[in-house]
Amino acid sequence: NLFSCCRRCNSAICTAPMKDVSEYNEEVCPKWKPKNKKLHINCGGEETNLDGIIYESDNDSSPVYTSPHRNWVRISSGEQSVGKEIKCAISVSDAPLYDKARLATISLKYYALCLENGEYNVTLHFAEIVFANNTDEADNTDYDFTDQGDQSLKTRIFNINVQNQWVRTDFNIKETAGKAKMDTRVDVSMVQVNNNRLEIHLYWAGKGSYTDNRGPLISAISVVPSDIKRGKLSSLHVALISGASVAVFVLLLLFIIASAMGWLREEEIHEIGVGPNKIVTLKQLMDATRGFSSEMEIGRGGLGIVYK
User: I want to staple 16 with a disulfide (CB 3.0 to 4.6 A). Which of 6, 242, 260, 284 is the partner?
Assistant: First the structure.
């Protein structure tokens, strides 16, 4: 897989020197450099802030693009389109992610670079904004279709691969979402990153409608550590809770031992009359009868047990 080494390439054809992805990742991610822990991309759109999460811009029209921060790379194969703004019928807080989309007729790859090694959860956002009619509450006039007709009858089918693992085959956005202009997502959990690089590959395998706008289409990408996505506690929190649990266990054990040894008993718990003008405490009785042991019994009567 080759891509431009330049940070940006605004021309239709990138003529900068080409490098292998793994080689480039080593170049932009030396061992001393702090690693990234997340990535959010607004595919085909501008930079977007959703509830404090910044989705980076991906509106460059080049088939090969490296982000300004050099933390991700996109490679589009075949005729490709940034996508045009459309009024989507998506009543969700992250609707701005679906106004535009990245489209490639054959192959679309994203590489997250300089990621901290570990487990990540990947979320891929989709909405079919091309194969839909105006009756689907969309305005497709912004798209330059070479073949006009009922767009809603066309189908887009492609495969999804994350980190060299096929997670969806024959994926159909409209079928999964229920209709055009409706959002859907593919969540991939526990994706392992060992070489500071993560690959997302969308690939058209020749199925679906054969038109100029066929092929994989994606609206946004989110990559976050698995412990954040699943609500796991950090290693520090786990250590603190583990230490507190051990401390509680030790205190409970000491309490049980102290109780068994009689260290926590009060000297005067109850006073009991055992004869004329003679008062003893419960502790004195316990000690004298060895805890009301049967070995200390000398007889039983109607009023109870008689001890030595």
Answer: 6
